[in-house]
Design a protein that fits this description.
Two copies of one chain form a homodimer.
Chain A: H1 3-10, H2 14-22, H3 41-55, H4 60-70, H5 78-110, H6 122-129
Chain A binds a DNA duplex through residues 2-4, 13-16, 18-19, 23, 32-37, 54, 59-61.
Chain lengths: 132, 132
DNA sequence: TTAAACTATATAGTAACTATAGAGTCAAGT
DNA sequence: ACTTGACTCTATAGTTACTATATAGTTTAA
């Protein structure tokens, strides 16, 4: 299988597959006579894992760690848990921040009446004055 | 006032102030004999506005638009409203996405028991199999 | 055989900075 | 007068996870 077929099978772009190889998330593939990368079924598996992790917003560094752990089946999976746990925390924190942001934006939005001019725009006034 | 003082007064770093100037969020400042940027009180105002907007996660492009609008006090502030509204929507969407993510991460986390080895780790299994 | 479709590498761009290198400026102390 | 240290200047590279582009080579179908 060549890279284009792998791309359509997994929903990745050709470029990102090459990028993952460069970043060591996929192994260096063997090449055909014409220097084309040749993939087997294992590559589909691995790319799907990568893609699923990316959908969960895991960083490439985190995914690389998971993949390395997968190569050592006999150690305990504490590290896997830790990665997921810390990621859950990060997401929770981000949600909290965004909710706070949402409140501020709404209160900002309420400070501008419909027909006013920029000159007396409550939003711009608030932005200029409010402390950081 | 030189750039370092402005930085401490506003809580920005010296580099980011220079960056904002390069990106046209601050005007090109006049220079001293020794080629140092010289700032007045207006710069504090403007930097605080920028910083406050950044705290609200507005992009530099959005902030640039707001600052341009500020220069034209007589037009209606529809555009200001639109920027804020669209930003509120973006944040709401992101919160929704993150909540969905959070669910998936938690269900993933639940699939790994405490003492298992990587070999039989429910998390890695799920990640490999689950569809994108 | 030739054109289309595919693949290869290398490089630059994205956002909003941060970090670094190398050089010039200024104020205070000796 | 000289030097030291703190400050400033510009230019460049790095960050993340790609995407886009240019240029060149390969394969496949008509």
């Amino acid at each position: 299988m060549k890279i284009g077929e792998l791309a359509t099978l997994t929903g990745c772009t050709v470029q990102s597959i090459r990028y993952y190889e460069k970043e060591q998330l996929l192994p260096t593939m063997q090449r055909s006579d014409g220097n084309y990368r040749i993939y087997g079924l294992a590559a589909i598996e691995q790319l799907k894992l990568i893609k699923h992790c990316r959908n969960l917003d895991l960083s490439l560094a985190e995914i690389r760690t998971l993949l390395e752990l997968k190569q050592q089946p006999d150690i305990t999976c504490d590290t896997v848990n830790k990665i997921v746990d810390s990621h859950i925390e990060q997401v929770a924190l981000r949600i909290k921040e965004l909710k706070h942001l949402q409140e501020q934006l709404r209160s900002l939005r309420d400070s501008c009446s419909l027909k006013s001019t920029v000159n007396e725009c409550g939003i711009l006034k608030k932005l200029s004055v409010k402390k950081t």
